[in-house]
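Entry type: protein chain
Record version: 2
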Amino acid sequence: MTHHFFGHPRGLAILFATEMWERFSYYGMRGLLIIYLTQHFLFSDERSALIYGAYVSLVYVMAIFGGSLADKYLGQRKAVTFGAILLVMGHFGMAFEGSGSKEIMTYQGAEYQLTLEGRGGDATQIILSDTGKSEISFNDDASQMIIADPAAVGLPGVIDTASYQTHKIREPLFVAILYLSLALIIAGVGFLKANISTIVGELYELGDPRRDSGFTIFYMGINLGAFFASLTAGTLGIVYGWKYGFGLAGIGMLAGLLTFLKFQPWLEGKAEPPNPEKLKQKVFGPINVEWACYSSALLIMAVAIALIMNPEPAAKLMAGTGVLMFIFLISYSLVKLQGKERTRMWAAIYFALAQIPFWSLFEQAGSSLNLFTDRLVDRSFLGWSVPAPVFQSLNAGFIFIFAPIIAWLWVWMAKRRIEPSTPVKFSFGVLFVGLGFLALVAGMKTTGSSALTPVIFIFLIYWIHTMGELLLSPVGLSAMTKLAPPVAGGLVMGTWFLYTGLSNSLAGVIAAGTGAETIGGKIINAAAAKATYAGVYTNVAYVAIGVAAFMLLISPIIKKWMHETD
C-alpha cells in the first residue's frame, strides 16, 4: 500500500515537520540574540553586531562541509540526525544564562551598579547602591545623569556623565557557554540544513511533476516555523526571561529531532550512505570513517568559537575567502569548461555575487533593525507593548500571503511572453531592499529628533524587503541549479551558500556602524542614536539602488550568458 502526504511521498511530511521545528528553534533564538548580547552580556552594539554577523555567516558556510560529508560518506539521513542532536544541545545551552554581567560606575571613589529592570526596550535603567536603588534617565544630549530618588542611593540628583567612569564585569563561565552553544548550533545547522533539502529532492524520480510543488510545501514549513518562533520565543524571552525564550527554542528542536527519529521509515530507504561498508573502515585506532565524520564537528566548532570570539578579523577573513573563491571559480571556468558551459558558469558566479548587496541589507532584520525596533519604535498595539523580536514574524507572514501571488504572476506573464528575465528580477530584488530602508528613514523623519518612529514603518520595511526576497531568493536558487555544469553541481551550490555567508558577515559590519552609547544595553541619547541609524540606512540604501541600476544595465549580457536557460 502506498502512503501519501497531500498527494506527495509521505516522507515529505517528516521532512516538513523536522525543518519546521529546526527553523522554529533557529529563528526563535535569532530574534533574541542581539538584544541578549547587548543587555545580558553588556557587549557594545558594535561587538554584538559583529558577533551576530560572524555567527549567521558561519551557519551558511559550514553547510558546505556538512553537505560534502553527507554526499561522500554519511548519507543525508545520518547527517541530519547528527546535526539535529548538536542543535538540541546548542539551543538548550543558550538557556544557561547565569546572573548576568554587571556595569559598575565609579563616582568620587565609590562604586555603584548601573543595570536594567526588565528586558528589551521597555526595561527601566536603574542605579544600585548599598543603601537602595533608583531609576535614572539622561538629559537630551546625555551630558547628565538624572537620578529619580537620589536619597535612596546617596547621590546628588544630577551627575555630569564626565564625572564618573564605568567598567563591566562578565561571568567567564557563562560567556564560555554562550560561545560553545553558538558553535554547537553552527555545526548542527551545517550538518542539517543543506542535507534535509537534498532528501526532499530524493523523494521524487527525475521528471516527477510533483517535485516543484513538493519543495513549495517544504518551503512553507520553513516559514511556518519562523513565524511562530518570533511570536512565541520572542515574547517569552523578553517578557518572562531569556532562559524561557531560548529554552522554548530548544524544545522546538527536540521536537524536530524526535519526529525525524520516529518516522525515518517513511523515507523508504532514501538518503542512506553511498557506501555503507566504507563507513566501517578504520581511520586510526578504534575510530572508523563514520565517527571521523562526526568528530569533524569538533573542528567546525573550534573554528566557530575562534571566529565568534574574534569577530573583527572574522569579517576580513570571510571577505578574503570570497575573493579567493572568485579567482578559483573564474580559473576553473577557463581551464575546465568551454562553450556554453563556460558562460553559464559565469552567469552562476554573477548570481552568487549579486546576492551580496541584497542579503547584507536584508539580514539587518536580526541585528541593527531588531535593536532599532526595540529602542526607537513606538511598539504599542491595543495597549500592549509588543516585544521587538515579534516583528521578525512579519517576513514569514508576508511570504505566506504574497508568495502564491508572485508565483501566479510569473505564470501569467510567461503566457504573455512578458515575464522579466532572471537577471532583471535580481536587479529589482536589490532595488527593493534599498527602497525599504529609504521608507524607514522617511518614517523616522515624521517625528522629532528623539521621538519614537511610528510602527507602521516597520511593517512597511518588512513588506518591501519580503517582496525583494521573493524576486531574488527562489529565483536565484532555481537559476543556480539550472546553470551548474553536470561536473560541478556541488561546487556551484556551495558557492551560493559561501557568498550567502559572506553577505551575512558584511551585514554584521554594516550593523556595527549603527552602534550607540548605552547603559545596560539601552541607549542614553535617543537623538544621536536615531541620527546614526538614519545616516547609515540612507547610505546603504543609495548604494543598493546604484548597484541595482548597474545590474539592470548589464542584465542583457547575463541573460546571453545563460543561453535561454531561464
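Comment: The domain at 1-101+170-309 is CATH 1.20.1250.20 (Growth Hormone; Chain: A;).
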